[in-house]
Amino acid sequence: MEIAVVDYKGGNVQSVLFALERLGAHPILTADPEVLRRADKVLFPGEGEASSAMQALREAGLDRVLPTLTQPFLGICLGMQLLGEHSEENDTPMLGLLPFRVQRFVPDSAHKVPHMGWNNLQALQGPLFAGLTEADHVYFVHSYCAPVGAYTTAQSAHPAPFSAAVQHGNFHGVQFHTEKSGAVGTRILANFLAL
Amino acid sequence: MVKKRLIPCLDVRDGRTVKGIQFEGLRDAGDPVALAARYAREGADELVFLDITATNQRRQPLTELVREVARVLDIPFTVGGGIGTVADVEALLLSGADKVSINSAALARPEFITDLARRFGSQCIVVAVDARLVDSQWQVMTRAGTQATGREAVAWCREAANLGAGELLLTSMSHDGTKSGFALELTRAVSEAVPVPVIASGGAGQPADFTAVFQAGGADAALAASIFHFNETALPALKQYLHAAGIPVRL
């Protein structure tokens, strides 16, 4: 099985590569449209700031390539947010594959921003979450989030509910870091590779 | 609800884990790769790796060791020690670190925090603050705790968060390695002063110290070294203890 990880200098991809290797995969880090089209699975990690990530995608021509991919595709963290229409972070138009608009969390005395740490998942739907329950925790680090909508396949809350995972067709996204979420994250990654 | 985090810290010198008291009198605590894997298995919520001699000897952090640890680790991994340039941060992130912790360089050039936050995102920039109680004032120390800066700790924490730090790692040098409990008032003051998460460090000795730092101290995470390294308190037992005490933890 060929597994491609999208290379657009979008933050720390090494953790994702190591996690895939721990599952016995041999991921290819690439920005080559042909390699991406040919891969059986595509992972799209991301960290950092939305507008610079979109600019890096445009410079690599990936803003046109990614929406045409047809195999199972997994956006992680900022990689999930970029699938949406728009981010409040520097007023950034994004890929528009899913109909959500990303908003900033509002801190209060009990809820710090970034939302950083282990939180549990709720309202789990679909094959990525096979074998998991609402008692399971995953690791989040983010200051912006997608609201809950018809596309939501898992929720978390800080304090209001937000989309912990989304899906539209072959495009999946998770707001948390599968590669840093211990055995639970490993299971979700394995479930994705099995799609 | 986001859970309170327990973070073992590996202070590393010359490829070995070491631990001292108030930053001195170091003793060997084992192989960092083996310790990291063990802590992840036992339920650590994150791991921090500090190359404690890097700043004073002006040595690059050990990126190869970082890579070895990252390869086995399926929980978040923060690396600090001797980070002074954007290139240092890039090298560590490329080696598999998830976050970096900066200290002396941020004090010398506060704008460095902003540069890193713009380039890599606040989520991976931890500002470490070493504070020492002098004449009932918390003073910020630099260069591995060897030099006073003249800055007051709460004010510096607030400034670091404003400049783009995504998290603060607050160490009380006056408590470090003493096992007499965390600096609760300092932790509470910082936690209330900043919108970002605060990791309390220095002084963990027994399970009740953690309950206190999460409740009275208002910490989001607690970091400890010797009690974990020398098997004085095992992580699974500590988590059960905290759960029973009503502290939200990941079991």
Question: Terminal Cα separation of chain A, in Å?
Answer: 12 Å
Determine Rg of chain A (CA atoms, Å): 15 Å
Indicate the CATH architecture of chain B.
Alpha-Beta Barrel
Task: Kindly report the greatest chain-chain contact and the residue count on each side.
Answer: A-B, 40 and 36 residues
Supply the number of structural domains of chain B.
Answer: 1
What is the assembly state of the chains in this entry?
A: heterodimer
- For the secondary structure, the number of strands of chain B is 12
Helix/sheet category of chain A: alpha/beta
Question: How many structural domains does the protein architecture of chain A include?
Answer: 1
Describe it.
The complex is a heterodimer of chains A (195) and B (251). With 195 residues, chain A is an alpha/beta fold. Chain A has one domain (3-193): Class I glutamine amidotransferase (GATase) domain (Rossmann fold, 3-Layer(aba) Sandwich), CATH 3.40.50. Chain A contains 6 helices and 13 strands. Chain A has a 7-stranded mixed β-sheet with strand order 2-1-3-4-13-12-11. In chain A, strands 6-5-7-10 form a 4-stranded mixed β-sheet, with helices on one face. In chain A, strand 1 (3-6), helix 1 and strand 2 form a beta-alpha-beta unit. The longest helix of chain A has 12 residues, at 182-193. The relative contact order of chain A is 0.17. The model of chain A has no long low-confidence stretch (mean pLDDT 95). Chain B is an alpha/beta fold and 251 residues long. Chain B has a single domain (5-244), classed as Aldolase class I (TIM Barrel), CATH 3.20.20. In chain B, 37% of the residues lie in helices and 28% in strands. Chain B has 11 helices and 12 strands. Chain B has helices at residues 32-42, 54-57, 63-72, 86-95, 104-108, 111-120, 153-163, 184-193, 207-215, 226-229, 235-244; strands at residues 5-13, 16-21, 24-30, 47-51, 77-80, 99-102, 125-134, 137-142, 147-152, 167-172, 198-201, 221-224. Chain B has an 8-stranded parallel beta barrel with strand order 1-4-5-6-7-10-11-12, surrounded by 6 helices. The longest helix of chain B is centred in the N-terminal third of the chain and has 11 residues, at 32-42. The two termini of chain B are 13 Å apart. Classes of the chains: A alpha/beta (195), B alpha/beta (251). The interface between A and B is large, with 40 and 36 residues.
